[in-house]
Design goal:
- It is a single chain.
- With 228 residues, the protein is of the alpha/beta class.
- The chain has 2 domains: 40 residues; 173 residues, Rossmann fold (3-Layer(aba) Sandwich).
- It has 6 helices and 9 strands, in the order ααβαβαββαβαββββ.
- The strands form 2 sheets. The chain has a 7-stranded mixed β-sheet with strand order 3-2-1-4-5-9-6, sandwiched between helices. Strands 7-8 form a two-stranded antiparallel ribbon.
- Strand 2, helix 4 and strand 3 form a beta-alpha-beta unit.
- Helix 1 packs antiparallel against helix 2, helix 2 packs parallel to helix 3 and helix 5 crosses helix 6.
- This is Class I SAM-dependent methyltransferase.
- Its EC number is 2.1.1.-.
- It is an enzyme of class 2 (transferase).
- InterPro entries: Methyltransf_11 (IPR013216), SAM-dependent_MTases_sf (IPR029063).
- Keywords: Membrane, Methyltransferase, Transferase, Transmembrane, Transmembrane helix.
Length: 228
């Protein structure tokens, strides 16, 4: 599976500034000057580990926890290279289907393109239960109460401003079937999502930390699980 780095400019900046800082520290011969660049290099390592490995471990655990039936209809918001979509597709059999929706912005994830994700789907042999669409999560092209589950991994925080993120939550709720489950991984705005869902009448909202595998430098991934 081809993977992409989330917000790729961030770890690049950590790495570059860290290397420059190390050179400066060596020249200065002052050990205290090593502290800042070493922290930045550690941040870069944590970020890359989560982006390329850790989040996939989290997603595998979550998909098992979702206990999907083989004919489930699932929507993946901001699917990117298909981390959630591909793991979910392993659990499905036609007519089960997982739909991956994205605007395919490479600033959000390196190499983010519908052709790349379709290639991942084809390589795994799950095209019969997977479908990709281009669309905006603030205006979903689906009927009300259509999906058994809606998932989103590190995507909704890219929607700006706050009113648009609230619209994305509204849309996810709208297309979710009664008793359906919503699963969101994100590094920002989890409290905002929880409050919006409560405004929509959702009583069952759980939030937990994803642990070391979800650390994007100093930012910790949180997991929100809600039931309509």
């Amino acid at each position: 599976m081809k993977k992409g780095i989330d917000a790729p400019l961030v770890p690049i900046m950590f790495l570059l500034v860290g290397v420059v800082g190390l050179v400066t520290a060596i020249v200065s011969k002052d050990w205290t000057n090593y502290i800042f660049p070493i922290v930045l290099l550690l941040f870069s390592g944590l970020y890359l580990n989560t982006s390329l490995s850790g989040k996939y471990k989290i997603i595998r655990r979550l998909v098992r926890k979702m206990n999907l039936s083989s004919n489930s209809q699932v929507l993946d918001l901001g699917t990117g290279h298909g981390a959630f979509l591909l793991e979910i597709s392993r659990q499905l059999k036609a007519p089960g289907k997982v739909v991956g929706l994205d605007i395919w912005n490479q600033g959000d994830q390196s190499g983010n393109a519908i052709e790349e994700t379709q290639h991942n789907i084809d390589r795994m042999g799950v095209s019969n239960v997977s479908k990709l669409v281009t669309g905006n999560m603030t205006k979903l092209p689906f009927e009300d109460n259509h999906f058994d589950s809606v998932v989103a991994s590190l995507s909704i925080h890219n929607v700006k401003p706050k009113s648009s993120r609230e619209k994305a939550i509204d849309e996810a709720y709208r297309v979710l079937k009664p008793e359906g489950q919503l699963v969101i991984l994100d590094i920002e705005h989890i409290g905002e999502y929880r409050n919006r869902l409560k405004q929509l009448g959702v009583n069952s909202v759980q939030v937990e930390h994803a642990g070391i595998n979800g650390m994007y430098a100093a930012l910790s991934t949180k997991i929100l699980i809600a039931k309509k």
